[in-house]
């Protein structure tokens, strides 16, 4: 890699996110949320990073179909894989947040779970991840290299088009506890992470660097995986 | 019959799940049954855009006939909870059109990957679930007389259908290159 400054930027931003995000005494203490609002710097950023990695994956698929260069196909696959991992991390951080805000402490955990598992946002994100799992299954089931790349790229673009209804449109049409959509009592709220006015100004100082930092980390991991794959292919050829 | 008198939501869910499986089985045949020499023959007489449009049109008509048949059989064998028949027919035709378009394109992918119909289910289910959710939500309105059919959701379905047709026209030539 010729350019390395962004890796340093990534480390600096993530260290800043961890220290300022967890320690800086600047978050508003809203009822029910309290200090858990700090999870915004982790949970929301995971989904941002996932979305950006999936976009890069689709762009690489388009590039492959235009140029027939197999490097683009490898990149497309690896970006999709790391996107899935960030999606799973988004679930994990969301589960931590949920256990402090949504779970009813007066009831057994499994009763709350059946309520929470019906959340449209959770279902939508699960569909998005399943679409990309299907992409991996399809692409890796074909043995011919060129055919695999071409069919994989076609499905990747098709799947990307259906990602938008799954995670952006459908969950907004259904009532939900999650911010962004129709809340309890039929009050429409926009997602505070996307609505720039809704977030407290002092929190934006950590939130935007955190998005950039986590996304750069995802890209960094992916470039490492791509280089590893290129090395493996080289050893097969020898 | 296992379910004598299902409630409206069960009836609705059952109806759309059966539509889904009808469309997987009916539409998958269209690509998976073509043998290689016939595909080569098609290749010599038609452009890939015309070919995929013809397939989409044929499967849409096939699926419309199938959904009309299944509506008739549903009303024959079970009780008929639909209060407003014409909107229901419209929604069913729109829904089965969406199902046939998506599964036609996925069948093209599955046929090129030389896989059986199982891969089509793996590819298709996550993609079709959002549309099925919207369809069930929309068709809930036909079981009562006082709620208007949500127009925004109908437009969303139309939009996704147009999107599938456009993507099929753009992407199918790449699948056909062999």
From TrEMBL, chain A:
Specify whether Mitochondrion is a keyword of the entry. Answer: no
Does the keyword field hold Membrane? Answer: yes
What keywords are assigned to this protein? Answer: Membrane, Transmembrane, Transmembrane helix
Q: Which residues form the Cytochrome c assembly protein domain?
A: 37-163
Q: Name one Pfam family in it.
A: Cytochrom_C_asm
**Taxonomic superkingdom:** Bacteria
GO-annotated biological processes: cytochrome complex assembly
| A GO term for molecular function | heme binding
| Segments traversing the membrane | 5-24, 40-59, 79-102, 122-138, 150-170, 205-224
Write the protein's name: Heme exporter protein C
Biological source species: Flavisolibacter ginsengisoli DSM 18119
From TrEMBL, chain B:
Report which residue ranges the record marks as coiled coil.
none
What molecular function terms (GO) are annotated for this protein? heme transmembrane transporter activity
Tell me the compartments it is located in: Membrane
Q: Where are the transmembrane segments?
A: 14-32, 52-74, 86-110, 117-134, 154-176
- UniProt record, GO biological process: cytochrome complex assembly
Kindly give the membrane topology term recorded for this protein: Multi-pass membrane protein
Transmembrane: present as a keyword of the record?
yes
What GO cellular component term, any one, is given?
membrane
- Which Pfam families does this one have? CcmB
Instruction: Kindly state which keywords UniProt assigns to this record, in alphabetical order.
Output: Membrane, Transmembrane, Transmembrane helix
Give the similarity note. Answer: Belongs to the CcmB/CycW/HelB family.
What is this protein's record name? Heme exporter protein B
